[in-house]
Every structure is written in structure tokens, then in C-alpha cells.
Design a protein that fits this description.
The complex is a heterotrimer of chains A (about 270), B (about 260) and C (about 270). Chain A is mainly alpha-helical. Chain A is built from twelve helices and no strands. Chain B is about 85% helix and about 0% strand. In chain B, a hairpin with a 2-residue loop joins β1 and β2. The mean pLDDT of chain B is about 85. Classes of the chains: A mainly alpha (about 270), B mainly alpha (about 260), C alpha/beta (about 270).
């Protein structure tokens, strides 16, 4: 008899109020623990105002006439490109090794998945710090970090995409005596290719932003320039660089959207 | 058009783009100073360095627990405030709820926020407010609004308009429609997105910490700078635990919520 | 408690085509009016003008309360419109209930317009209102499902919940937009049997695609063709009239119209 489960509105209200108060208490405790005063954003807003005053108007002429800046833009783009390219290739290879319908050897699967999990859990910060020690400051360290980050983020995702693909075409190809590699090429790949390509373009978007972040820690590119500008208090330069970053990111978002549509369209026509 | 088995069309479609790709790759490598020999050296150096970092400084585990908690709290606070605010933004950015102008402006703001990497936001905020937890929490909140704002706005726009019509037909005002019509429908999506963002924010909290926000990220950076690599290894292990732990917790929460959904 | 008077409403598309052309009729308490017409003739548009979801280019829709006060929906501002709508119950064709809320909550939503927005959001509904909502559910015989999520109900049950919501509003006018078009014949009958007694206390206007149903349950039928009222009278339609209303669609309608009454006649209507 469902009527006995009826919850009166007043009781439900009391439940909800309790949850709300509990949540607010936890949040409040958290704020106190780290010394964050939410209202401080408004009471100390004059700092932001002061800073904004110093940041506007951006000194475009200074920054844009400086060839190092354009070089660093190119470097950031190259970093993102290479990081995405090699990272996705590596992720694909590892994904095939980790997918249950492609890799029959269990211990290989488990160890690769563990590897992917650790790579995923390691923040980019740690990566760049280690690589800077290994290969020195600069874009190379950034690229290596990006490769690892990409593998971490997309390795598991690619493996899941492979596992979700339909098994029937693969069976058919097996039954005519083909080898495993042929099965992959002719059965798994055509189904999963659109997802892979879409994700790769998405990876490029993410990596562009990450490349900028990594630059701040010594990875080269615009990030480094920006960090320098802020450290020496040249805020107007920093603003100009930030505008540059925004333009760059938006531009490439649009470009990758365009390519995504074109490639998916032509792949589906095959 | 085939000439002796060579098809012009196929050439254009496969070989040309691949060749272009190769060219760009080589140029990019040159630009960034990629060198295979250095890579090999670097790999050797890197691995030996990693080996050197073991064993971690066990004594430091105790004192690093508080920074870990700080990083977690910063991430949770950022996600909570961010989720709440992104709801408000999403309501204003949904075409079936607001005036087209308001929608455009809100969507522009959300998109604008998404183009700026969080770390740059943090640098600016640190320049304004100084070091500490506040700039990090604000940066995470803004990042959250950028992601959830768009996702939630899209979800709201997909809600069946007949349902909204029926609510306005009983005389409900906008606020009531949002609260009784929209909110219950997007709640499952909200929770999924918020948990996803929490995982991202935990990692960000580590990175932001290194730039001065405190927490375990700062400890890691500090240990590196002090060349105290064993301590750095401790911090790294704790970070790993933290990230993996968050993933497990969020999976658990998702399962519990999915369990309740079975009624539907 | 009141009546509704539609005066010469018209609506044109930007390219000049007429959607609604000088539609007028008057419905009183005690009447159950069915609006019939071919697809695209303007039935739903007319209905939407009656509660303000659509504004005609010209004409007026007057709602007259007991005691003489009358209001023109077409000229009402936002606040007035909301106030008028509190007392108009509407049943839609599609699934217009909030899926993730329970049946009881969906019925309670009916009075959202009558409760202040602050109280409804911060506190919710009172226990007294919940009891009245249960009474409304009793009238549609769904009290056992009160705490079930609406997503788990069937089409017929969903429509009954919608009717319960309308009843809960204590409306002075009931509008129904193709309420049985998505239902199988037995469920459709159930719905019509629930709606019919409501018409004793208030005017009920419904848009239907099933002339055999309106013939049996409605007190009056209005037929609309190409945006114009072509018939207003007894619900029993002659063959010629059906041809005029439906034109090409007639073949399907004809079969159901002539075959059903005999099976319905055997029941207590």
C-alpha cells in the first residue's frame, strides 16, 4: 500500500532544512580552516580595482613588436601540437593493450591500466617539475609533460571506446582466418575512428591551455612570458599577453570545431 | 580519374594531409628544440632521478597531512560555490528562460571565462589579493562556472517546452517554474557534472597550490626548490592518494545516486 | 462559476496567411464544448488564445466571473495574466508533468500561482494543501500512487494526474488540448468519464480529434476549418458536416465514428 510511504510536506521541509544547515556548517568549517572569508572578495574588492587600473590599458605596441612574443606563440602552438600528436598516438597504442576485447593477456591489461591510472592521477605540475630536471627548462620539457598528461587523460577513455565497439564485425573477420592486427584494422578501427578523431581535436584544445599553464613553470612558450611580465610588475604587458592568449584559444576552438565537423562528415561518408 | 592505378582523388585525400602533418611535425620539433639524443639522455636522467627520489621521507608524512586537507577543502569549496553560481548563470543563459539579449551576454561571459586558463586567473588574483586560499578558491569557482554554466544551460534548453508551458498555465512565475520545473529535472545532471568538476578541481588545487595557494602543491614545489627530493616524493605519493581517493569517492556517490534513480 | 466569451479573434502570419479568422463563441458553466477540425485548422491555436499562451492580433477573450467582473485575457499584463491563470485549469496532450517529482507534488504544483513565490520556494506546501491534493487524486482514483514518481506511470494515469492538478486549482474554467489523442480507446473513455462531470460546475472546452467521443460526451461541438468557425451546435454531426470539416482525413474518422457508437451505446455513459 503505497500511501503509507507518503511524506508530508512539512516533514520533508524539515529534512531539507537539516541537510542545508549541515552542508552550510561543513562549508563554513572549511572556510575557517583555510582562512577564506567569502565576503572578503567584496570588502577587499578595492585591490582588484587597483590592479585592474594598473592592467588597463594593455600595451599592445610594446608586446606585439617584440619578436620573442611571437616566437613564444609559435612555440606554445608547437608544444600543443606535438604533445597532442604523440600523446594521442601513445594513448591509442596503450588503449589497445588495455582493452579487454583486443588484448587477451590479462596481466598485460591490468598492468597497463594501473600505469594509466597513475599517469592520470599525477598532476601536470609534478610532470613538468620532473621533466625540467631531466631535459632542462624549455619547450621540450613541456612537450614531454603534455605527452604524459594526454596519455593519462585519454588512455582510459580510448580503451573504453574500444571496448564499447561492436564485436560482431570482429568475429566475422576472425572466422575467415585473419590475424588479430587485421581484425583491429578492419573491424575495430572503422567503428571507433570518429570518436578518436573527435577526442584528438578536443585534446588539442585542452593541451593548448595546458601548454600555457605549463609554460609558467618553465615549460616555455607564452606561459613563461606571462609569468615574467607579472613577476616584474609589468601589468600592462601581462594584459596584452592575456588578450593574446584569449584570442589564441578562441581561434583554435573555432578551427578545431570546423575540422571536427569536416572530418566526421567525410569519415562517415566512407 | 585513374591513371595507371594511381588515383588523383585518393592522393589528395590521404597522402597530402599525411605529408602536411609530417611537415608540420618536423617544423614544430625544430622550433621547440626536440632532439632524440637529448630525449634518450633525458629519459635516462629522468628515470635515475625518479629512482633517486625513492624512498620517500616517511617522517614528513605526518606534517603533510594538513596541507593535503587544505588542498581538498579548497577544491571542495571552489566546487560548491561554483556549482551554486553556475546554476544561476545557466538559468540566465538558457534560451527557453530568458530574453535573447540576456542569453547572449551571459553565454559570452561564460565563454570568455572558459578561454582563460585557470592558472592565469590565479596569477591575476594573486597579484590582487596576495597569496593564500582566497585567490585559489575564487579561481576554481570561476572555472566551475565556465564549465557547468555551459553544460547546465544546454541541459535546460533541452527540457520539453510543453512542461514549462503547463507550469506557466497554472499561473506560476519565473522563479517557481525554475524551482519546481527545471531544478528537479536537471538534478541528476547537476550531480554528475559537479562530481566531474570536483575531480578536475582537486588536480587544479594542487597546481594552483604551487603558485602560492598553499596546500600540498605548495609543499611539493617547495621541496623541489629546496632540493629535498625525498620530501618531494612524499608529497607526490600523498597527491596520488588524494586524487585516486577522490575518484573512488565520486564513483561511490554516483552509484548511490544511481541506485535511487532505479524508481524512474 | 462563470462564462467565457470569445470575440472576433484573428491572427495572421507575417506573410499574410490567416491562422485564425474572426472566431467568436460563448461558453457557459454547465457546458462541455468540443472543438473539432482537421489538422492545422486552428483548433489548438484557438485554445491557446483562451489562456493567454498565444496573443491574437485582434479581438478579445473575456472571462466573466460570478458577480459580473470581467477580464480580457488578450489585454492583460503579466501580473493580471498570472492571476487569471490561477483559476484556469489546462490539460495538455503531451507529458507535461515534472517527471522527477512525485504524483502528489505534481498535483500540488497546480496551486503555485495561488501561493506567494517566496513561500512556495523556501517552504514548499503546507500539510493542509497536501490533504486537499489527495482529495483531488481521489476524484481521479489515483491516491495509491501519490508518492510514486510520475516517470513510472502509464499514459492514462499521467493524464489523470494532470486532471487532478487542474481540479486542485479549483478552477473556474477548464481547457483541454487533445487530452485523449495519445491514449488507447479504453483509457480515453476513462478520461472522458472523469472530465464530463466536472462540466456541471464550470465551462469545459476541449480540442479533440475524435468526433465519436465528442458525440457521446460533449454537450456542444464547435467545428473550425481553415481558421474559421463553420459549425456551432449539437455534438451529433451529420455525414455532410463531417466531410466538410475533415475533407481528406475523413476516411479514417468515418470508420471510427460509425463503428464506435454502437459499442458505446451498450455502456452506461
Amino acid at each position: 500500500m503505497r500511501a503509507s510511504k507518503l511524506i508530508l510536506p512539512s516533514i520533508r521541509f524539515r529534512y531539507r532544512l537539516t541537510y542545508l544547515i549541515a552542508a552550510l556548517t561543513v562549508l563554513g568549517a572549511g572556510c575557517m580552516f583555510v582562512g577564506f572569508n567569502p565576503l572578503g572578495f567584496f570588502t577587499e574588492f578595492h585591490y582588484v580595482r587597483d590592479l585592474l587600473g594598473e592592467m588597463l590599458m594593455p600595451e599592445f605596441s610594446q608586446v606585439f613588436s617584440n619578436p620573442t612574443v611571437w616566437g613564444s606563440v609559435l612555440q606554445t602552438l608547437s608544444m600543443a601540437f606535438l604533445g597532442t600528436l604523440f600523446g594521442c598516438l601513445a594513448a591509442l597504442v596503450l588503449a589497445f593493450c588495455a582493452a579487454s576485447n583486443v588484448m587477451p593477456v590479462k596481466w598485460v591489461r591490468i598492468s597497463i591500466r594501473a600505469l594509466l591510472a597513475i599517469t592520470r592521477a599525477t598532476p601536470g605540475l609534478v610532470m613538468i617539475l620532473i621533466f625540467v630536471i631531466a631535459v632542462g627548462l624549455g619547450a621540450f620539457a613541456g612537450i614531454l609533460s603534455l605527452i604524459f598528461i594526454t596519455v593519462g587523460t585519454f588512455g582510459k577513455l580510448f580503451a573504453e571506446i574500444i571496448e564499447l565497439s561492436d564485436y560482431a564485425p570482429g568475429e566475422a573477420i576472425y572466422s575467415v582466418g585473419a590475424k588479430r592486427v587485421q581484425v583491429i584494422w578492419f573491424a575495430v578501427l572503422p567503428q571507433t575512428l570518429p570518436s578518436f578523431i573527435a577526442n584528438m581535436l578536443y585534446a588539442f584544445d585542452i593541451n593548448l591551455r595546458t601548454a600555457i599553464s605549463l609554460g609558467i613553470f618553465g615549460g616555455g612558450g607564452i606561459g613563461l612570458q606571462l609569468n615574467m611580465a607579472i613577476k616584474v610588475l609589468r601589468y600592462k604587458d601581462a594584459t596584452a599577453l592575456i588578450c593574446l592568449v584569449i584570442v589564441l584559444v578562441v581561434l583554435f576552438e573555432k578551427i578545431s570545431d570546423y575540422f571536427r565537423k569536416r572530418i566526421l562528415h567525410s569519415v562517415s561518408l566512407h | 580519374m585513374t591513371i595507371n592505378g594511381f588515383s588523383l582523388k585518393r592522393y589528395r585525400r590521404t597522402v597530402l594531409p599525411l605529408g602536411l602533418l609530417l611537415l608540420v611535425t618536423v617544423l614544430a620539433c625544430l622550433d621547440c628544440g626536440v632532439s632524440i639524443s637529448q630525449l634518450w639522455e633525458g629519459m635516462v636522467k629522468g628515470f635515475s632521478f625518479l629512482a633517486y627520489m625513492f624512498p620517500p621521507d616517511w617522517s614528513a608524512f605526518g606534517e603533510m597531512l594538513q596541507p593535503v586537507l587544505e588542498s581538498i577543502v579548497i577544491a571542495v569549496l571552489g566546487t560548491s560555490f561554483g556549482t551554486f553560481l553556475s546554476l544561476i548563470f545557466a538559468v540566465f543563459a538558457a534560451s527557453n528562460l530568458t530574453h535573447p539579449w540576456i542569453r547572449q551576454i551571459t553565454r559570452f561571459l561564460i565563454g570568455f571565462e572558459r578561454s582563460i586558463p585557470e592558472i592565469i586567473i590565479l596569477l591575476i588574483l594573486v597579484a590582487a589579493f596576495g597569496l593564500g586560499a582566497m585567490p585559489a578558491i575564487i579561481a576554481l569557482t570561476l572555472g566551475c562556472i565556465g564549465m557547468l554554466g555551459k553544460l547546465l544551460a544546454d541541459t535546460i534548453e533541452e527540457i520539453d517546452s510543453v512542461m514549462l508551458d503547463s507550469m506557466t498555465s497554472v499561473g506560476a512565475n519565473k522563479l517557481q517554474v525554475v524551482f519546481y520545473g527545471i531544478l528537479p529535472q536537471i538534478l541528476p545532471n547537476l550531480v554528475t557534472y559537479a562530481l566531474f568538476r570536483l575531480e578536475i578541481n582537486i588536480r587544479l588545487s594542487v597546481i594552483l597550490g604551487a603558485v602560492g595557494a598553499g596546500g600540498i602543491g605548495y609543499e611539493l614545489e617547495y621541496a623541489f626548490n629546496m632540493l629535498n627530493y625525498h620530501r618531494a616524493m612524499t608529497a607526490f605519493l600523498l597527491i596520488l592518494l588524494m586524487v585516486l581517493g577522490t575518484e573512488q569517492v565520486s564513483n561511490l556517490v554516483k552509484k548511490r545516486i544511481k541506485g535511487r534513480e532505479v524508481l524512474l | 462559476m462563470c462564462s467565457i466569451e470569445v470575440n472576433h479573434i484573428s491572427k495572421k502570419l507575417p506573410d499574410g496567411r490567416k491562422l485564425l479568422d474572426d472566431i467568436s463563441f460563448w461558453v457557459n458553466k454547465g457546458e462541455f464544448v468540443g472543438i473539432l477540425g482537421a489538422s492545422g485548422a486552428g483548433k489548438t491555436l484557438t485554445l491557446r488564445c483562451l489562456n493567454g499562451l498565444l496573443r491574437p492580433d485582434s479581438g478579445s477573450v473575456l472571462i466573466r466571473e460570478e458577480g459580473g467582473a470581467e477580464q480580457d485575457i488578450c489585454r492583460a499584463g503579466k501580473k493580471e495574466l498570472r492571476k487569471i491563470r490561477q483559476k484556469i485549469g489546462v490539460i495538455f496532450q503531451g507529458y507535461h508533468l515534472v517527471k522527477r517529482l512525485t504524483v502528489l507534488e505534481n498535483v500540488l504544483i497546480g496551486r503555485l500561482g495561488q501561493i506567494g513565490s517566496i513561500r512556495s520556494i523556501l517552504y514548499g506546501f503546507t500539510d493542509g494543501e497536501a490533504e486537499e491534493a489527495l482529495l483531488a487524486l481521489e476524484k481521479v482514483k489515483l491516491t495509491s500512487h501519490a508518492s510514486a514518481r510520475t516517470g513510472s506511470l502509464s499514459g492514462g494515469e499521467l493524464q489523470r494526474v494532470a486532471i487532478a492538478r487542474a481540479i486542485f486549482q479549483s478552477p473556474t474554467l477548464l481547457l483541454a488540448d487533445e487530452p485523449i489523442s495519445n491514449l488507447d480507446p479504453s483509457n480515453a473513455k476513462v478520461i472522458m468519464k472523469i472530465i464530463k462531470p466536472l462540466s456541471e460546475n464550470l465551462p469545459v472546452i476541449g480540442v479533440f480529434h475524435q468526433p465519436e467521443m465528442t458525440a457521446h460526451y460533449c454537450t456542444r461541438v464547435i467545428a473550425i476549418k481553415e481558421g474559421r468557425v463553420i459549425y456551432d451546435g449539437s455534438p451529433h454531426l451529420s455525414n455532410d458536416l463531417l466531410v466538410e470539416i475533415y475533407g481528406d482525413e475523413l476516411k479514417q474518422i468515418e470508420i471510427s465514428y460509425h463503428s464506435l457508437p454502437s459499442s458505446l451505446v451498450n455502456e452506461q455513459v
